[in-house]
Amino acid sequence: MLSKDNTIGFIGTGVMGKSMASNLLNAGYPITVHTRTKGKAKDLLDQGAVWKESVADISHSADVIITMVGYPTDVKEVYFGAAGILANAKAGTYVVDMTTSKPALAQDIFQKAKENKLYALDAPVSGGDVGAKNGKLAS
Length: 139
Description:
With 139 residues, the protein is α/β, with parallel strands linked by helices. The protein has 7 helices and 6 strands, in the order E-H-E-H-E-H-E-H-H-E-H-E-H. It has a single domain, classed as NAD(P)-binding Rossmann-like Domain (Rossmann fold), CATH 3.40.50.
């Protein structure tokens, strides 16, 4: 079970990700963030989130990693490769992709995560900006 002692890494602070991360901060969870453009994370940093310079940096330090990025190609980029989540997260980490993506990609992430002793969850959400702000997203 997730406790407030666990660090949540949040990758992708665009329209929906920013509000999702903000809701977690408001609930008292420690959050680290990374996005391609640091300026997009400014409001979260002002709320107390901690900036991480790379996906690998988040992966080394988080107990739970949530991704909310734009497209399946972005999901591949943050999960796979030498600097990605799957190569850098510590055993026992939970990885949760909330991007609307492809089922085959979710299966690939699950298999690689399992090999690396990680727990993977594919949890795409809908509800847009308003749903994210109000904490009313649907899965």
